[in-house]
Structure formats: C-alpha cells, structure tokens
Amino acid sequence: MMVVGLTGGIGSGKTTVAGFFKELGIPVYIADDAGKRLMNTSSRIREQIIDLFGEAAYSGDTPERKYIASKVFNDKELLEELNKIIHPAVAQDFSDWVKDQSSKYVIYEAAILFETGGYKKCDLSILVTAPKKLRIERLQKRDESSRQEIQQRMDNQWSDEKKSELADFIIINEDLEQTRQQVEHIHGEILKAGQNS
Q1: Could you tell me whether strands 124-129 and 2-8 are parallel, antiparallel, or unpaired per DSSP bridges?
Q2: How far is CA 3 from CA 102, 125, 165, in A?
Q3: Residues forming a β-bridge with 109
Q4: Among residues 120, 88, 104, which one has the least CA distance to residue 96?
Q5: Spatial separation of the C-alpha atoms in residues 129 and 6, rounded to whole Å
C-alpha cells in the first residue's frame, strides 16, 4: 500500500484537503492529532516529557500544552528533544494503523513532513499552499492569533519555495471548488502511479 505524505504551512488548508481525500474514500492519518492522543494516553511519553520539562508539564494524565509550548517556543534544542519523544511514538502508531487499512493508498498528514525528513518514508508527497495574506486571515479567524504570533509560527517552518522542491504534487488552496478539482486530479495520478509500481 502506498503512503502519500500531505503537508503545508500553517493556514494553508491541509485539513480541508485531507477532508476532500476522505470524501474519495482514502484513509487519512493526522500525525498532529496522533501526537496529542499519545501524549494523553501513553504513560511512557508522559514520564519522558516530565523528565524533560518537570512536573508542571502534566496535570494528572493531561499534558499542560500551553506550558510545554511556551518552553519550546524559542528553544530549538528543547523542541528537538520533545520531537525525539513524540515522533518515534507517532511513527509506530502510524505503522500499526496502516495494517488495518485496505485502500490503494493512505494519506499521512504532517505539518513538518519535509523539515523532519518524514517525506523520505512516503511514496509520494503533496504540498498545500495558499497566498500568505489568505493564510494569515484564516489563522486570525481560526484561533484569534495576532499577526506577530502567526509570523513567528510561519518563521519556524520552511518556506513553500523550499518545500515545493521536494513535493511531487502542489495544491494551491485559494478557491474551494478548484481545490477539490486538484485533489480529484491528484487522486487519479496517485492511482495510476500505484498501478505502474
């Protein structure tokens, strides 16, 4: 079964695109959601995170996300340590999940697919892009972030130009109907690629 990576900067509309693939009957695994779930359910992860950030990182079994985020926000080394805890657990969870799927391919959606080298484990990859102005507007509507907070988060991710050099397909997500058509076209291309491999 083929694994197709799906990524894009914040506010690009990865979730919308993932939804269109689901409508086509393609199973979608969202790495970020899996990471959050594992932080809540895995006692091993909880112990490792408390070792890294101290007792304040958890309240009972619940991670204190805002506290953890504030610690890693401007500390790249600490963020890398956190990723070393979460990413292998997500990778294992994903491979267990894939065993239960029966479609021609699955979508693996991850915000930092290229930055972490995760795309190397995928057969193909899709980059979702949108004009910066539109992305900022979407994020301001979605989580009421300030322009400055959004800019800082964008600065922590690779540029679309850098990512597009590695992507097999690029979806420009400005107009929903056009985005849906792009998804349907790529779906057909992936199925063809699967037949030829």
Answers
A1: parallel
A2: 12, 9, 19
A3: 6, 30
A4: 88
A5: 11
| Per-residue pLDDT tens over the stretch 13-70 | 999 999 999 999 999 999 999 999 999 999 999 999 999 999 999 999 899 999 998 8
Q: Kindly give the pairing relationship between strand 28-30 and strand 105-109.
A: parallel
pTM of the model: 0.90
Task: Say if residues 4 and 101 touch (Cβ distance below 8 Å).
Answer: no
Reading the block at residue 67, the tokens are 């506290």
CA of residue 173 relative to chain centroid, distance: 16
- Within 10 Å of residue 16's Cβ, how many Cβ atoms? 18
The DSSP code for 55 is G
Torsion angles phi and psi, residue 62, rounded to 5 = -100, 125
CB count within 10 Å of CB 86 equals 20
Q: At which residue do the structure tokens 């400055």 appear?
A: 148
CB burial of residue 190 (10 Å; 0-12, 13-18, 19+): buried
Beta pairing partners, 106: 3
- What is the rounded distance in angstroms from the CA atom of residue 6 to the CA atom of residue 27? 12
Count other Cβ atoms within 10 Å, centred on residue 35.
21
Query: Ramachandran region of residue 125, left (φ > 0), alpha (ψ -120 to 50) or beta?
Result: beta
